[in-house]
Amino acid sequence: MTPLLAASSNSWIDLNALWKICVIGLICGAGLPAVFAIGLRLLSLPASSGGSAGSAAPPSVDDDRIYFGNVLGAVGAGICFAVVLAAIGLGIDWIVST
Amino acid sequence: MNNDLTLALVVIVALAFDFTNGFHDTGNAMATSIATGALPPRIAVLLSGALNLVGAFLSFSVAATIASGLVSTGAINLTVVLAGLCGGITWNLLTWYFGIPSSSSHALIGGVIGSTLAAAGSHAIKWHGLVSKVILPGVLSPFIALGIAAAGTWAVYRLTREVPKGTRSHGFRIGQIGSASMVSLAHGTNDAQKTMGIITLALISEGTLKAGDKAPSWVIISCALAISLGTWIGGWRVIRTMGKGLTEIESPQGMAAEASSASAILLSSHFGYSLSTTQVATGSILGSGVGRRTEVRWNVAGRMVSAWIVTMPSAGAVGALAYAIANGIGGNAGGIIVFLVVIAIGTGFYLLSRKTKVTPDNVNDEWTGQVGIPTPTPGPAKAAA
Questions:
Q1: Mutate which of A90, A95, A96, A98 to disrupt the B interface (most B C-beta within 10 Å)?
Q2: Of B53, B176, B332, B351, whose Cβ has the fewest other Cβ atoms within 10 Å?
């Protein structure tokens, strides 16, 4: 038996559950906000040159509008937000089924 | 002893505990969203209450841990459960008064352990279950949450540094609605279960259910309603400490903190660990402050941690005392007297709290120090001294 398996059979602390909580927790708890952040970053990419003139004005610091001027960016952002929503949906489904 | 009356008292006190559990813990899910303005305070508590209700029906593994994993069911009776609940409620109200986000779960478990010790001695405690399912997860979880939140916050700020500040703040305020909702749902799956477990334990001790039975549906429904009503009432005192006392929270770090709390609570629920959602949420908020490299009021955090350490022993001492009183008087009279004392304590704290009231309107005011200790006002008070 490897030391890892031996350790995980400790009855006081379930190392098997512990590492799962840490790793899955990191993926969901830190990873999903990061994907959301990437989505927001893509959404607010500057408009491609010669593209839409409507949103050409650079935003000031106080402007809190969420705008998008770049179609590719908006599509990428949509994918990111969809990943986050899907992960939440799967998570709830997993809780209900256990 | 007429069991029906005592059983009714146990159920009432258990639901009352569940209610305090709700308002004590509203801040876990909503403090960060209220602090950043992602949700208006009154909407936030309504949403959180509704999702707690839903969450209470989603998972039952924690209820099982409480009902049969901590004390040997043969050694306890209704008076023990009643006394334990009294310990939990008293500690919850005390910490709520001072705005300390302490663990409702540890208060409940501590109270029951205390009354069981007083009634049957230490052999009735499943020490192994207590340490492996409650104490160790309780010690580790705030650190895990802190780490996840710090990593998430760092990543989120790193990835969005090119995004204009206003846009970033707005975007994450929207995201926070989702992440705070997940924490509320997670709270329902974890904390509502604890009271279900206690009532199940009472029913087992009284003989209605066998050890290992699941909670009956009237227990599930009434517990779900009690905790969500409590959440909706909103523990503004605790919300204030969590949202304003620990660190100044911006919306990106608020979302990272909430995501960390939600995932840590849900994963632990899955493994049947009855960890403290409060301690996880506090760890996450501290971690988000660390990840953003902003000022964290470690003295406020330190005060909380000391409250966490004394929670189980204190609630246990009250639980043991309540058992001694109820058992000393004996019969239904003992139960009724303990019940009345708890009502008196609750009323007392409520009246006291009105002097330093925290409401949806002042919950986000500038942090001036601990909740519950009025800022000294010059004038009559000094003249009297």
A1: A95
A2: B351
Residue from the list A24, A34, A63 with its beta carbon closest to the beta carbon of B156: A34
Q: At which residue do the structure tokens 């703040």 appear?
A: B169
Can you tell me the distance from the alpha carbon of B6 to that of B10, in angstroms, rounded to the nearest whole number? 6
CA dist., res. B55 & res. B243, Å (int): 23
Residue type, B176: Q
**Is A95's Cβ below 8 Å from some Cβ in B?**
yes
Chain A segment 45-84 residues within 8 A of B by beta carbon are 59-67, 84
Average pLDDT of the residues in B237-254? 90
B33 CB burial (10 A radius; 0-12, 13-18, 19+): buried
What's the farthest any 2 CA atoms get from each other in chain B?
Answer: 71
Q: Does B144 touch chain A (CB under 8 A)?
A: yes
Closest CA to B116 of B327, B342, B330: B327
Residue of A nearest to B288 (CA): A30
Q: Which residues contact B328 (CB under 8 A, 6 or more apart)?
A: B334
**What are residue B379's phi and psi, to 5 degrees?**
125, -130
Q: Which residue has the higher pLDDT, B65 or B169?
A: B169
Q: Report yes or no: B223 and B60 within 8 Å, Cβ to Cβ.
A: no
Amino acid, res. B173: R
Cross-chain Cβ contact B168/A40 below 8 Å: yes
> Count of CB atoms within 10 A of residue B357's CB?
10
Tens of pLDDT, residue by residue over B18-39, are 999 999 999 888 999 999 999 9
Q: Do B259 and A62 touch (CB under 8 A)?
A: no
Of A62, A80, A55, A83, the C-alpha closest to B170 is: A62
